[in-house]
Amino acid sequence: MPEFLASLTSANFFLCLLTAFLCGCVIAIAASVKQSPTVSFLSSLVLLPMIVCTVILMVNGNIGTGVAVMGAFSLVRFRSVPGKARDIAVIFMAMTAGLACAAGQLGVAAVFTLAVCAVLVLLALVPVKRELEMRITVPESLQITDAFRDIFEEYTKNCRLVHTKTTNMGSLYKLEYRLEMKNNGKLQEFIDKLRVRNGNLEIAIGEAAEGSDVL
User: Fold this and answer.
1) Distances in whole angstroms, Cα of residue 142 to Cα of each of 33, 87, 198
2) pLDDT below 50 — which residues of the chain?
3) Under 8 Å CB-to-CB from 55, ≥6 apart: which residues?
4) What are phi and psi of 28, to 5 degrees?
5) Would you state the pLDDT for residue 6?
6) What is the Cα–Cα distance from 163 to 208, expressed in whole angstroms?
7) Considering only Cβ atoms within 10 Å of each terminal Cβ, which end of the chain, N or C, has fewer?
8) Rounded-to-integer distance, Cα 63 and Cα 42, Å
9) What pLDDT is stored for residue 28 in this prediction?
10) CB-based contacts of 65, cutoff 8 Å, min separation 6
């Protein structure tokens, strides 16, 4: 541990806390690039380095205090929706920055935060394939395997049927597709042709939910 933390003073503590706060702010800003995080999540990213830093400084090699802190944290039950892999990584990054500040390695904390946030922003700016999710209702008289093949070939790069179920006492089918449009500007034209084919029954199209990267 650096000499200025050998005997913890108020000035040293506030210096570590300020560095942890700045690291948290930078991480929160980087995490919001090309994303739509909640205010609660961004607030947690700002506060987490400060909390971790303070906890580690209070332990400061004291075994008894360390055991007490471990016992206190073991009582916390985390009950929340599953987080995406990216969110989990950002949380670990915030904790690492807090640990570095608590160890007195303020320069390491700053360099680590800036370097990892730069990588995070670059990855967020990389274009990724965005799929649409389409739910369409068709009558039982329509052959669902080939009913829209020609329309899909004209308007989509790729399309796959992911779910099928019957409704209305078996007189209707609800089909769910994942697709990627060739030209998003022709979405309305695409829907109009589907409506002609399915007898003007319900059609719903939206951005596909991210479910493959949930931890």
Assistant:
1) 45, 43, 8
2) 79, 212, 214-215
3) 69, 102
4) -65, -40
5) 61
6) 13
7) C
8) 33
9) 94
10) 58, 59
Q: What pLDDT is recorded for position 212? A: 47
pTM of the model as a whole: 0.68
| pLDDT at position 130 | 75
Query: Which residue type, as a one-letter code, is found at position 6?
Result: A
Q: How far is CA 103 from each of CA 17, 49, 53, 89, rounded to the nearest angstrom?
A: 12, 12, 8, 21
Q: Given this model, what pLDDT does residue 105 score?
A: 87
> Which residue's entry shows tokens 């990267």?
213
CA nearest to 57, candidates 16, 118, 4:
16
